[in-house]
């Protein structure tokens, strides 16, 4: 599967949620699609699933446009944060309806997962708890067998054991039947081990797209006296800078270059830390 995003912008009435983003994703792969609150993730996922149209630019999957092209959309399953299912239907009816929509639907897997998540097929969607609703979304995503399966915060209300079941299923499915999985979550520490590639949106723009290997090799925090740090990082791409108690922290992309300098410290940057930095940066800008 190949997703091509070309110069895509999306504006709501008073808000430009996506600002001219372009990138390509090729799978099978598990992608971590990350960013602070309001960065534009759900907007992009809605565009990719053909649910809304772009204001400018184009998104295609394997060369076909996604908006208003039903055939393409049958190979994209978007499990949104909420409102995935009709309240008056039972679980069994919901799964049946999905089996008609997704041509590669795996009914056996759906039945198996109902047991794993202890859901009763006779229960109405209206009667489900938040966690049960999330479980139904997870079952739909996996059973759809869609070439692109998107989970947007798939585990609201699920306890840690059920979340671990989700992570195990993701690995199992990716091994047995590789697909392009896109996972958007704020529980980054938990999920980061699963990601093969990471995309980070920041204030409606693509801030970074890296494989996990590139991340570990190239993204580093440089800390120390401001003038020493500035000297050491000169010419490098700076992702974030913050001074606290006369110590400057700069997160940089080294692009394979070694960083040298006196009285500086180099530290690895976890995904979770990066997202915390970016969210701080956004708040600092909002305050100014
Ligand atoms: N239907 C809408 N009408 C107006 N503005 C919207 C609409 N949907 C989203 N926005 C705005 O667009 C921006 C991006 O929102 P979006 O939901 O895509 O972000 P997000 O990264 O998914 O955030 P979160 O992690 O909080 O779910 C936000 O400023 C949001 O307020």
UniProtKB/TrEMBL annotation:
Cited InterPro entries: AAA+_ATPase, ABC_transporter-like_ATP-bd, ABC_transporter-like_CS, ABC_Transporter_VariousFunc, P-loop_NTPase
Signal peptide as annotated in the record: none
Protein origin, superkingdom: Bacteria
GO molecular function terms listed in the Swiss-Prot or TrEMBL record: ATP binding
Keywords annotated in UniProt: ATP-binding, Nucleotide-binding, Transport
Keyword flag Thylakoid: no
Pfam families membership: ABC_tran
Gene3D superfamilies: P-loop containing nucleotide triphosphate hydrolases
UniProt domain ABC transporter: residue ranges: 3-228
The protein's name in its UniProt record: ABC transporter ATP-binding protein
């Amino acid at each position: 599967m190949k997703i091509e995003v070309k110069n895509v912008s999306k504006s709501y009435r008073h808000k430009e949620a996506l600002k001219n983003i372009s990138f390509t994703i090729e799978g099978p792969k598990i992608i971590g699609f990350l960013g602070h609150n309001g960065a534009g993730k759900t907007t992009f996922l809605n565009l990719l699933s053909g649910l809304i149209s772009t204001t400018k630019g184009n998104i295609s999957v394997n060369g076909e446009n996604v908006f208003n092209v039903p055939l393409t959309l049958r190979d994209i399953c978007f499990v949104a944060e909420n409102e995935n299912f009709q309240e008056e239907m039972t679980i069994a009816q919901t799964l049946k309806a999905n089996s008609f929509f997704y041509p590669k639907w795996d009914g056996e897997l759906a039945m198996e997962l109902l047991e794993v998540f202890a859901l009763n097929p006779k229960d109405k969607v209206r009667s489900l708890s938040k966690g049960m609703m999330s479980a139904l979304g997870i079952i739909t995503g996996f059973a759809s067998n869609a070439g692109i399966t998107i989970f947007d915060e798939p585990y609201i209300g699920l306890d840690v054991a059920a979340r671990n079941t989700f992570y195990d299923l993701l690995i199992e499915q990716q091994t047995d039947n590789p697909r392009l999985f896109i996972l958007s979550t704020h529980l980054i520490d938990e999920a980061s081990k699963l990601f093969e590639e990471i995309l980070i949106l920041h204030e409606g723009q693509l801030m970074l797209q890296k494989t996990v290997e590139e991340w570990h090799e190239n993204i580093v925090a440089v800390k120390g006296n401001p003038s020493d740090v500035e000297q050491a990082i000169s010419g490098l791409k700076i992702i974030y800078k913050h001074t606290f108690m006369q110590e400057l922290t700069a997160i940089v992309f080294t692009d394979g270059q070694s960083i040298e300098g006196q009285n500086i410290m180099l530290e690895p940057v976890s995904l979770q830390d990066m997202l915390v930095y970016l969210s701080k940066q956004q708040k600092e800008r909002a305050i100014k």
